[in-house]
Write a structure and sequence with these properties.
This protein has about 230 residues and is α/β, with parallel strands linked by helices. The chain has a single domain, classed as Rossmann fold, CATH 3.40.50. Helices cover about 45% and strands about 10% of the residues. A five-stranded parallel beta sheet has the order 1-3-2-4-5, with helices on both faces. InterPro entries: Golvesin-related_Golgi, P-loop_NTPase, Sulfotransferase.
Length: about 230
Amino acid sequence: MIIFDKEATNPENPVFLHIPKTGGKTLWDLFERQQDTIHVWHNRYFKEYPKPIRFFTFLRDPADRVISTYFYIRSYERDPLYQKVNDMSLQEFVEYVQNEKIENQPYNKSDIRNIRYRTVNLATRYLSGGDPNDLERAKHHITKHFDLVGFTDMYRESLFCMQQIYGWNIASINRKNKTNSRPEMDSIAPNIIQSIEQVNHHDKELYEWAKHHFLNYPHLTSFQDV
């Protein structure tokens, strides 16, 4: 059972903090098939409670996430930026991502400036509690409050750890919300990837830091035998 975007009140019910474009809808389908109650925060940043609440999340390489966002917007007619982004090349989109004259804050959903809010240090924003530049707070919250940080490029391993922690049935996964029209990362120009990584330097460091901790996660020892 899923409860969307509501306050967490029971420490027994974990909270999945969903950072956009990290495979969330695929996980929602998995959560719906569990007997446990699972909070899904789709439009909420991390929040610290007086009593301990168990959180988990997924991260994605920031360059991969930004490129996925570009192709997703172009493929989804109901997205508020669909018409505007459809007239942009990937290079033009990345130029908006890089434009530091545009404040990294939410604008009207159809405002083209919203590109930066949807792409720049998004994971740091969600995990810090709202500040895209507070990397250290994001790390602190993960260390203190998160059972698990999974990774889209280590999906099978991440799901295995989730099963070990929560005891959920993950026998079958139905891939949801995949943008079939997007190219593979190795076909993207290296200068575009580098430009995205430079402006997403907090997310890049957070991703690499969290992955280092994940690779030393005790449940992965038994994964090798599966």
